[in-house]
Amino acid sequence: MITRRGFLRLIGGSVLSMVSLSAYAVGIEPMLLTHVKRYTLTPPHWPSGLKLRVVALADIHACRPWMTPERIASLVEKTNALQPDLIVLLGDYVDGMRLVTADVSAPDWASALSGLKAPLGVLSILGNHDWWHDYAAQVAGAGPTVARKALESVGIPVLENDVVRLEKDGHGFWIAGLADQLAIRPSKALGRHGFKGLDDLDGTLAKVRDSEPIVLLAHEPDIFPKVPWRVSLTLSGHTHGGQVRLFGYSPVVPSDFGNRYAYGHVVENDRNLIVSGGLGFSIMPVRFGVRPEILQIDLGQSRLSGAT
Ligand SMILES: [Fe+2]
After folding, report:
1. 119-150 per-position pLDDT tens digit
2. Centre of ligand 1 from the C-alpha of residue 17, in Å
């Protein structure tokens, strides 16, 4: 039979474990263990001789005390140090929860991002939170959002159902950016039921004028089943890998497909999707088993696929 002392030790031990686990999940993993997640692949339609390093930042969710302009500036420094050919931003720049001490204004997070430098430039898309936090855009059911204007004001183009053609090593390729799939929230006051996406995949891809390879940026990975084989690689964020992930399984994923597109490199029918675990938080300031990450993707290298 358990003694009183044993019981108190057990309770004390459990409390201590809970406190350490909480400290780890709230403070250490999300704030101190940012890492570079590396992938090396040669996807379909990728010309031999085109070696391209793309570095992607997803789900920054600027807010105090979790993602300050100073922390964003340090992520920018780490990103530049990877010597990317191209930097892409995968949406959700604004905060995604109520447990914050203060907002970070759009000019402040955009100014921190303005330090990103790459020979082929920096391109961006928007995420659902960039729309949801913009009351005027919600009422109008249309942009331009505050986030879009902030990015453009620091010289970062925003692709919403739009494409850009770039060139490296004598090869052309296209970056296509999808508008957000959950942009407009339901609202009783406005008579809207359900979420409304502004994405137009067919219209976006129709803007590609030749057979050169395409990299698609789509904040939510749920579009992936509809992405044609013609697209070499789709890059997404949004899920944060579930924020809690154990043994390759995330109990809660903001996706209609559950764990199918929760995190990492997914290959389906010879089509490639990489979902970033992102950098910030949604709902709760907790991460466990999904460290904040900067994505580095080396395309056109010899290994088929690899990650660290
Ligand atoms: Fe999102």
Report:
1. 999 999 999 999 999 999 999 999 999 999 99
2. 32
Q: How far is the CA of 92 from the centre of ligand 1 (A)?
A: 5
How far apart, in whole angstroms, are the C-alpha atoms of residue 137 and residue 60?
21
How far does residue 276's CA lie from ligand 1's centre (Å)?
11
Cβ distance 60 to 279 under 8 Å?
Answer: yes
C-alpha 153 to ligand 1 mean position (Å)? 22
Query: Of 40, 33, 34, 35, whose CA–CA distance to 307 is shortest?
Result: 40
Unique residue bearing structure tokens 């892409």: 88
Comparing 252 with 59, the larger pLDDT belongs to: 59
Tell me which DSSP letter residue 180 carries: P
Please give the helix or strand (H or E) that residue 37 lies within, else none: strand 35-41
User: Which two tokens mark 5?
Assistant: 């002392």
Who's near 297: CB < 8 A, 6+ residues apart? 38, 39, 40, 41, 53, 54, 55, 56, 233, 235, 274
User: Token pair of 195, please?
Assistant: 């979420």
Between 66 and 286, whose confidence is greater? 66
Distance, CA 168 to ligand 1 centroid (Å)? 31
What's the predicted TM-score (pTM) here?
0.91
Cα gap 118→27, rounded to integer Å: 31
Tens digits of per-residue pLDDT, 175-192? 999 999 999 999 998 889
From its phi and psi, is residue 37 left (phi > 0), alpha (psi between -120 and 50) or beta? Answer: beta
State the chain's mean pLDDT as an integer.
91
Residues 115, 73 contacting (CB under 8 angstroms): yes
Token pair 């994923």: residue: 253
Of how many residues is the chain composed? 308
What digits encode the pLDDT tens for the residues 30-64? 666 799 999 999 999 999 999 999 999 999 999 99
134 CA → ligand 1 middle, Å: 14
- Cα(93) to ligand 1 centroid in Å equals 9
CA of 302 to the centre of ligand 1 (A): 33
